Design the sequence.
């Protein structure tokens, strides 16, 4: 059973600052293995609420009313048409890709058959011996730091660095319907049993000083595609706690999500994470797209 250590305290504080709802944070902690009561107490404590008071029926009713009013209020983020093609089968450069699910708010699309089993195996084998501990962006400095919230190993490939990688880049760009030159290099990540990536945003929050370092070249990130390179025996889903969406890891499949619209607004509903791997391991390949040419 996990405990609320310094890393979790940091996670709680940062998600409160980002405007995440208490319920979504409790759900994320429960999916990470916390008991519901322990998760609720930690979240209420971070929000400055008294858990005993929160258990009072009158307080709970008032909180529910407040939450309902907040949901009914007009959203700041304006949803426009995503660039991904319509239809249930999309021709992505050299391959037909099936659409398994579309969600409008947030804009999430689940695909099947983005990579063949042989292509997945090749990506794993060419990456296996080059893995290094994954990092995340420090919000204050923009530097890449190793933190406990992200327990994975990874490797970056330069865009188009060989014919195989170039084919992957072009297929993904075609599927996302975004210029290939606007893409960051492919990243391969490996999670062992218990490995996870706690809920976070892929975009660089404009109010954080360190974001300017990353948006100076290519601008803001606009969308993400996560491709699953193997079947995960248990756990390891991609979760969207604010939206109540969970996508299981299936070899060759992928999840796309878009978080920046034509007005350059950023969608907070795309808060997402990698749930703990409970059985086996997990290999994924990630592509981030920018506003402008990158690299």
Sequence:
């Amino acid at each position: 059973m996990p405990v609320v250590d310094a890393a979790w305290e940091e996670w709680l504080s940062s998600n409160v600052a980002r405007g995440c709802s208490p319920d979504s944070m409790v759900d994320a902690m429960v999916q990470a293995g916390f008991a519901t009561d322990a998760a609720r107490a930690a979240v209420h404590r971070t929000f400055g609420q008294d858990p005993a008071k929160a258990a009072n029926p009158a307080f709970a009713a008032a909180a529910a009313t407040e939450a309902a009013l907040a949901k009914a209020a007009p959203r700041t983020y304006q949803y426009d048409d995503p660039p991904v093609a319509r239809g249930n089968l999309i021709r992505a450069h050299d391959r037909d890709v099936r659409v398994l699910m579309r969600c409008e708010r947030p804009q999430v699309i689940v695909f099947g058959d983005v990579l063949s089993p042989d292509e997945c195996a090749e990506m794993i084998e060419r990456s296996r011996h080059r893995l290094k501990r994954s990092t995340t962006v420090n919000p204050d400095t923009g530097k890449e730091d190793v933190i406990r919230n992200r327990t994975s190993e990874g490797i970056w490939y330069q865009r188009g660095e060989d014919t195989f990688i170039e084919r992957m880049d072009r297929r993904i760009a075609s599927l996302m319907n975004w210029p290939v030159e606007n893409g960051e290099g492919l990243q391969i990540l490996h999670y062992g049993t218990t490995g996870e990536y706690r809920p976070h945003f892929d975009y660089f929050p404009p109010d954080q000083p360190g974001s300017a370092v990353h948006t100076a070249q290519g601008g803001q990130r606009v969308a993400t595609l996560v491709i699953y390179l193997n079947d995960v025996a248990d756990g390891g889903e991609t979760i969207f706690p604010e939206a109540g969406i969970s996508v299981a890891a299936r070899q060759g499949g992928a999840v796309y999500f878009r978080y920046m619209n034509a007005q350059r607004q950023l969608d907070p509903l795309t808060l997402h994470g990698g749930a703990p791997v409970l059985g086996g391991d997990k290999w994924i390949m990630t592509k981030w797209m920018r506003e402008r040419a990158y690299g």
Observations:
- Residues 69-74 have pLDDT under 50 and may be disordered.
- Residues 6-72 form one domain.
